[in-house]
Amino acid sequence: MSEPKKDAPRRYIADGAGQRVLVGLTISETIEFEALDKPDADSIGEMGRVRQARHGERWLELYVKHERAWSDWMAQTRARPEKPQLLN
């Protein structure tokens, strides 16, 4: 397993209430996304497959919302002019 890079940007931010959320998602959507992101060991049989399909659709909906917001946020971050370093 490879180690995560320390220079990789974090996809979590603090919302207005100081809660850790994924960029572009509310706290409830972040909690839902994280729950859906974990594999469900109880999914057995046809009903389990139907439930997994619905969960997959919702996961994808939340992921796309997050990814779009992340891309916009990164573009805005890159567009900000860097403050010139002051030399004394």
* Mean pLDDT, all residues: 79
How far is it from the N-terminal to the C-terminal residue, by CA? 46 Å
* Overall geometry: elongated
Largest sheet, strands/sense/barrel: 2 strands, antiparallel
Briefly note the structural class of the backbone: mainly alpha
Strand content: 5-15%
Beta strands, count: 2
Oligomeric state of the chains present here: single chain
Q: How many individual helices?
A: 2
Strand/helix succession = EEHH
Kindly provide the radius of gyration, computed on alpha-carbon positions and rounded to a whole number of angstroms.
18 Å
Strand order of the largest sheet: 1-2
Helix content: 40-55%
Q: Flag low-confidence runs.
A: none
What does this structure look like?
With 88 residues, this protein is mainly alpha-helical. 52% of the residues lie in helices and 7% in strands. The protein is built from two helices and two strands. It has a two-stranded antiparallel sheet. α1 packs across α2. The longest helix is centred in the last third of the chain and has 35 residues. The protein is elongated, with a radius of gyration of 18 Å. The N and C termini lie far apart (46 Å). The mean pLDDT is 79.
List keywords for this structure.
88 residues, mainly alpha
Secondary-structure blueprint of this entry?
Elements: E1 12-14, E2 20-22, H1 27-37, H2 45-79
Antiparallel strand pairs: 1-2
Helix pairs in contact: 1-2
